[in-house]
Amino acid sequence: MAGTAKSNGSDGGGGNNNDVRTARNFGNLAAASYVLLMLVVGVPIWWRTTEVYRVSLPYAEIDGLDRDLQTRMRAELLLVSSEDSKMGPKVQALLKGAIMLCF
């Protein structure tokens, strides 16, 4: 009776549970090995390439720059005030005689 024969999965018709399990195990193994590779190789490379290089600064030379370097700058200032305000000339006179500090 050919019509009553049952397939046991070994003839390729119904698929084999061992093949499915093997493929699933291979996928899990591939994912685990990828994570392991990223932890072992990727994290140290990332750590090394993103670290900040710290140089010791010559503080004495930096402080000396302020004493050695004197800069004078001249700037023109336009002061605009309303017609009835008499504050404009007073401010101009104050600015003209003032010593401006440069930072």
Description:
This protein has about 100 residues and is mostly helical. About 50% of the residues lie in helices and about 0% in strands. The chain contains 3 helices and no strands. The longest helix is centred in the N-terminal third of the chain and has 33 residues, at about 15-50. The protein is elongated. The mean pLDDT is about 75.
> End-to-end distance, in Å?
105 Å
Main sheet attributes: strand count, strand direction, barrel closure: none
Report the count of strand segments: 0
What's the Cα radius of gyration? 41 Å
Shape: elongated
- Low-pLDDT windows of residues: none
Class derived from helix and strand content: mainly alpha
Number of helices: 3
Overall average pLDDT: 77
Strand content: under 5%
Q: SSE string, helix = H, strand = E?
A: HHH
Q: Helix share of residues?
A: 40-55%
Layout: helices, strands, pairs:
Elements lengths: L16 H33 L9 H10 L18 H11 L6
What are the main properties of this structure?
mainly alpha, 103 residues, elongated
What's the short version?
This protein has helices at residues 17-49, 59-68, 87-97. With 103 residues, it is mainly alpha-helical.
